[in-house]
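== Sequence entry ==
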Amino acid sequence: MFLTISTTGTPERPATDLGFLLHKHPDKAQKFSTSHGTAHVFYPEASAERCTSALLLEVDPVALVRRGKGKGRGGAPDSALAQYVNDRPYAASSLLAVALSTVFKSALRGVCAALPGRAEEPMQLRVEVPALPARGGAELVRKLFGPLGWASVEAGPVALDDRFPEWGDSRYVQLVLEGELRLADALRQLYVLLPVLDDAKHYWVAPDEVDKLLRAGEGWLAEHPEQKLITSRYLSRRWGLTRQAMERLELVRLAEADDLEVEDVDNAVDETTDTEEKPVPLAKQRRDAILEALRTAGASRVLDLGCGQGQLVQALLKDVRFTEIVGVDVSVRALTIAGRRLKLDRMGERQAARVKLLQGSLMYTDKRLGGYDAAVLSEVIEHLDLPRLPALEYAVFGSARPQTVVVTTPNVEYNVRWETLPAGHVRHSDHRFEWTRAEFRSWARAVAERVGYGVEFVAVGPDDPEVGPPTQMAVFTRSDETEKTRNTDRSRHTARTDKTEKTGRTEAEKEAKAA
């Protein structure tokens, strides 16, 4: 997948200014990790007269299939031959658009500290895309790019096979754009129109795509004659999102026509009474789900194992039904930060009596952790090497044995929905593993059966019909019958031990008297 951007210059304004504007040095070849492969930036030519920057995207087709499971949502939406043999690595598409936004992020915003004036000025540009899928053919390409200020829009059809001209043309064109535009404008147009012409996206289109479209389309999309087609295709024909984008674009058009700000046009509602719901961060959804599970279990004395910087402890303190809260972490630094977050040094005596922070490792049994109603392991287990997991299981379920244990961990299947997460990567660099829903449930059920707990599973966050929720949660509940049996066995063992010790003392006393 390949794209080049060229410009010409003069001794006063050398063409190598392109390197400053793109924030990529012409003397270096650089590579960047993207969601489905590796992007390379290099300069085939770089002189004062002419400079060309090339973006080469190497797509990993195996990673593409694994991330998307070969499905339209998040996977390869248009496999020409099969899942592993298709046009995705070669034809410009939303994959290349995402690479553009990742590699040339500052250039897309028109930001250049070294040459701020140059970034705002039009420059002679030539953009070439050797293989561009175009549903609608060369004519549609000209309709989309023609009104945007390009002096020349060439979209030469690519034949299916040069040896068999009777077969006709493929759906691919060789695109060449020439004209005098701001570099940021040219990049934004490509970012929007590449997936529009391909008429497909490699990731699930979420509501935030409307904001991306409006940002990239600022200054040109509101007045474009093909606005509706562009909006519909960019948003993968999700009509609710398309309608929302069209309404906002109409406000932009009206504001520009009257030389006003959008806020001055859309002033029918007082912002102080605006009740529009904002997206709830996943971390908050996770804490809310944990709190609900603890309330349902009737827990009042709670352990937060692996408490980190104390976010969950802080949330627990706000609910008076939790009378004793203990945060445990192996990191002294994390506990120090948690103490600052909770303002322990300024906390009232009654409130301070409810909370305690302890330094300790979950790899070892700890008598301080016994006797609590519930324990929480929120985003903890994935930070352990798998061979060390049994030690944690014994420390929590075998030794501490609270009535309820709540465990949350990432669902690796949902990772395909994170557009900027590189293929094959886990969500955090310190994660030793991330489980699928089946793997997590298999582990949880095996632990529950082994230690005498029941287990139920809860989805946290939006439950995608194909890949599930972003976070998976298991709620373990100790079986009273199992605990009764364990207590009985413990009592019998203690009685036998006492009897043996008593018999031993009696025999010793007899021997002493005989002597």
